[in-house]
Amino acid sequence: MQIDTSTPVMVTGATGYVAGRLVERLLEEGVTVHAAVRDPDDSRKLQYLNAIAEKTPGSIRYFKADLLSPGSYAEAMAGCSVVFHTASPFTTTVKDPQKELVEPAQLGTRNVLETVNETPSVKRVVLTSSCAAIYGDNADLKHTAGGVFTEADWNTSSSLDHQPYAYSKTMAEKEAWKIADAQDRWDLVTINPSLVVGPGINPNATSESFDILCQFGDGTARPGVPDVGIGVVDVREVAEAHLRAAWLPEANGRYILSGHNTDFPEMAAVLRRRFGRNYPIPKRALPKAAVWLVGPVVNKTLTRKFVSRNVNLPWRADNSRSREQLGIQYRPLDESLNEFFQQLVDSGRLKK
């Protein structure tokens, strides 16, 4: 893989969890990064990127941009050969899914790609999508061709009322392919990660991934966890996949990034072996009937529809395209989870 360091690249949402590791890899390779952020003067948010830039051969420049402001990425994108669009909210606790999830994801993607259409230097766009654009519920697995999710699958079961985050990611990726297919100057590659874990460059980042791991260790999940199958991938593999998707000439289409087909009880068991003595890591899987009865009361996202379509159901995905075409090698689940949990401990987010 030959990485072209003669032209800059743009990264949207550069202070985000996945984007932080991506920018780190770009700087390590000597690339000039145009970091599009909400506030280029917020030194507190930029300190982690600046610390990396100081000790790597690449360089970083900050540009003010807003997902929902048309044309706001034009300055940052000028002269760039690659655009990495990572900016999109990842949360399941929202009051207005349309305004808080769908509009930033779908309209933000349209805003970025319309600017790409107006920037002749851009040759490739790498979009951070999600496995949520491939499936909505674990029950969808029975409708797949081989009992496993692949890049050929699309989420058809989510909506504004059910799994709105997954719906927003689906709408955003479909918007991206619609715009990409309507032109022939630049090509689009999408990275579709499952649940992203592992230490980020910012220990205080805000992401649903951090919240889930905190619940394993702060007592919230002490009574037990629902047996929900889930895919898990390390943030460092996701960043590497973005890098390779940008510069490998043969990279194309969608790539599932998921190192492990697992579930919440197995994740708890992994963490309990190392941290169970000092933290209330859950020890059992909750009965489905109990989750169905009590879940909606204690957690609004655990609707009865979610419980019936996900609890006690496995999750399986085929990651062969990422391994064979991008050359991604997935690290052990224990390593990713334990290093992530340790970061939460070291940063003070979890107390003994």
From TrEMBL:
Keywords: Oxidoreductase. Residues 9-246 form the NAD-dependent epimerase/dehydratase domain. The keyword Ligase does not apply. The lineage of its organism: Bacteria, Pseudomonadati, Pseudomonadota, Gammaproteobacteria, Oceanospirillales. The keyword Signal does not apply. Gene3D superfamilies: NAD(P)-binding Rossmann-like Domain. This is NAD-dependent epimerase/dehydratase. It comes from the Bacteria.
